[in-house]
Specification:
about 475 residues; mainly alpha; Amino acid/polyamine transporter I; 21 helices; about 0% strand; AminoAcid_Transporter; Amino acid transporter
């Protein structure tokens, strides 16, 4: 593969893949689960520590295995083909393609803010609860357009990524500045005054409204459940940074630049996320955050900051953000499926590069499946169910750093995990706590995604048997 991506391009890929629509939406649900600005910020800080710790740990593996395929390659090299395949299976069926579908739909929904006729138009097709809308068609059109652009060569995808990621970083920085300069009445101290005591006296009725009278005390264990549920949103908004490892084969000096891109990119995004949440807490009271219309807390905050123009400003920002995010996801994901195909664990046509030296077949396979997920309308449910599995695979990969230190201490490590073993242990502890709390309090987020990945086992055994027969 040609080395056409420099360090700056890799950082833009990390940041662009992370910043999609989540930061503009998830804080509403998080506030409903937590009831306090204090705990909202605390959960984002925990997620930030967790994310950067994982990126620092992944750096050692990226330097050991500077090949295309990234996390798939790490898991395969450390734990064997079966573990690598299960990750790749989850990535293709839901993790990467489901995220592409969800981000494309977010683009469509916020476009409908600017073009209301998209919302008002009758469905193109409807049978019972299943329907195909113009917003879904727009989402699919975006996926097809970005897939086509990326088949034109890595430089086309790189240019698009840098322009859109740079634009949304500047726009977010502007929103953060305006969120403190233009707000007449700050709600920050009021929101922070609601700490543990307020949470323990908070109850939500069945209609989703905070009760004004007759509050009942809530135990500390319920707070832990609230933190776990809230982290589903913050964690989902903070994934996909590992996409840069998928394109290691096309990055200049990957042994150094991949780890730098992951650490610089994740740190910058988590600082931006924290600052945006401070804007929400400064511009809105907690009820306005928790019960923002359609969970669009960024729209509510922007209307408070900019007035009636706020809706248009945020709609444009989300459109830029989701378009750039999807470009990064589409560019990177196909490289994993191509690597799997080379290992005999994916469709054979995905192996081939086109005349522009990119895996066009893998790109189109990914794009077609993501488009079908858009039509199914189930991408949101699938992503909720897979959050547990995403963190589980992160944990297995981070554990791989410790495992290799014991199993193969003789390996030359161009980069060693900073503050080893503290950094990977921090991630494993927080990740374990998150997964255990979900298993206790939010089981609907756990077992369906786990079963979905386990369904890959019979597929793996079938492929393995077929490969052995061909070799004979």
């Amino acid at each position: 593969m040609q080395k056409k991506l420099k360090l700056w391009d890799a950082i833009m890929l990390v940041m662009g893949s992370m910043i999609g629509s989540g930061i503009f939406i998830v804080s509403a649900d998080m506030m409903r689960n937590l009831g306090s600005g204090f705990w909202l910020v605390a959960v984002w800080i925990i997620t930030g520590i967790m994310t950067v710790a994982a990126a620092i740990s992944y750096g050692e593996l990226s330097a050991l295995f500077p090949k295309a395929g990234g996390q798939y390659t790490y898991l395969k090299e450390i734990f064997g083909r079966k573990m690598g395949f299960l990750y790749g299976w989850g990535l293709f069926t839901v993790i990467q393609t489901g995220t592409i579908a969800a981000v494309a739909m977010a683009f469509g929904k916020f476009t409908a803010y600017l073009v209301p006729s998209l919302n008002d138009a009758a469905p193109i097709f409807q049978s019972g609860e299943f329907k195909i809308t113009w917003i879904q068609i727009l989402a699919i059109a975006v996926i097809i357009l970005l897939t086509y652009i990326n088949t034109r060569g890595v430089e086309s995808g790189k240019l698009l990524q840098n322009v859109f990621t740079g634009s949304k970083i500047i726009a977010l920085a502007g929103l953060i500045a305006a969120g403190f300069i233009l707000v007449d009445i700050s709600r920050l101290s009021e929101n922070f005054s609601w700490g543990m005591e307020a949470f323990n006296n908070l109850k939500k009725d069945l209609n989703g409204n905070f009760l004004k009278e007759g509050w009942e005390s809530i135990s500390g264990m319920t707070l832990l459940g609230g933190i776990a549920a809230a982290m589903v949103g913050s964690v989902f908004s903070s994934v996909a940074w590992e996409s840069v490892t998928f394109v290691s084969g096309e990055i200049e000096n990957p042994k150094k630049n991949v780890v730098k891109a992951m650490i610089y990119g994740t740190s910058a995004v988590m600082i931006l996320y924290l600052a945006v949440n401070f804007v929400y807490l400064n511009a809105l009271d907690r009820e306005s955050i928790a019960f923002a219309a359609n969970d669009r807390v960024a729209v509510a905050a922007s209307q408070n900051i900019f007035g009636s123009a706020g809706t248009i400003i945020i709609a444009l920002l989300v459109m830029v953000s989701t378009f750039g995010c999807n470009n990064g996801l589409i560019l990177a994901g196909a490289r994993v499926f191509q690597t799997m195909a080379k290992d005999g664990m994916f469709f054979k046509p995905a192996v081939e590069n086109n005349k522009n030296e990119v895996p066009a077949n893998a790109l189109w396979m990914q794009g077609i499946w993501a488009s079908l997920l858009c039509l199914s309308g189930q991408y949101g449910n699938l992503l909720d169910m897979i959050s547990f599995v995403i963190v589980l695979f992160y944990m297995i990969t981070v554990f791989g750093v410790i495992y290799l230190r014991f199993k193969k201490p003789e390996l030359e490590r161009p980069y060693k995990t900073w503050l080893y073993p503290v950094t990977p242990v921090i991630y494993l502890l927080i990740g374990t706590g998150f997964c255990v709390l979900l298993l206790i309090y939010k089981q609907q987020y756990t077992w369906p995604g786990f079963i979905m990945v386990l369904l890959g086992l019979p597929v793996y055994y079938f492929i393995n048997r077929k490969n052995k027969q061909e070799q004979q």
